[in-house]
Amino acid sequence: MGRMYRVLGFWTGIIAVMAFIGALGGDASSSEHTDSFLVMGFVFLAQTVFFAALGYLRLTEKVYVYIFAAYLTVFFIVFTYWTNFQM
User: Fold this and answer.
1) What phi and psi values does residue 17 have, to the nearest 5 degrees?
2) CA-to-CA distance for 58 and 77, rounded, in angstroms?
3) N or C, where is the chain less crowded by C-beta within 10 Å?
4) Integer distance in angstroms from the first to the last C-alpha of the chain?
């Protein structure tokens, strides 16, 4: 189960790198999205550290499932708030 957390860390790391590259590229007309890409990159970088660190803790499968359920609950609450009030 810890290996799947490391896989999640890998993919969130890839998304973070793509967000940082997206913040670098483009012409002057796309500069208003640079801050959004940087925020997205830092959020996914934090998730990468979180998942990678949990992947090496060697917890029981039950604890990993509880942690993932808590993560999904927080994600859905924040995502719902963001899509309703920030976009």
Assistant:
1) -65, -45
2) 28
3) C
4) 35
